Prior knowledge:
CATH architecture of the largest domain: 2-Layer Sandwich
Distance between the termini: 85 Å
Shape: rod-shaped
Number of helices: 4
CATH class of the largest domain: Alpha Beta
Strand content: 5-15%
Number of strands: 3
CATH topology of the largest domain: Alpha-Beta Plaits
Radius of gyration: 26 Å
Helix content: 40-55%
Order of helices and strands: HHEHEEH
Largest sheet: 3 strands, antiparallel
Number of domains: 2
Amino acid sequence: ANAHPRTRLRHDASVPECVSDAIRLWESERQRVSSEPAVLYANFDPENVQEFDAIRAHAIALDGLIHCSTDASNRFVVVNPRIHDALREFVRNRRAQTSASALPK
């Protein structure tokens, strides 16, 4: 519709096929990624692998784990917001138990 008259005479389409293919590919890549609300748990103690594993396992048990990284230098857990309160309480209880057991008797 907006093509130059000579272009309309030479081509069936006003946009070359390679350009329209590139646009289609770009659009499909653009729509591949989606976002959703989430809560990030990060800054885990690199020495305390057990805590990270317990939190990740609890998030899985609550069916709310979205993503996690087990890379030792950057451990994190991303969870669904609906389990945030329960997971936060789990972390608090676990840390309270750990610190209480570390005290001399």
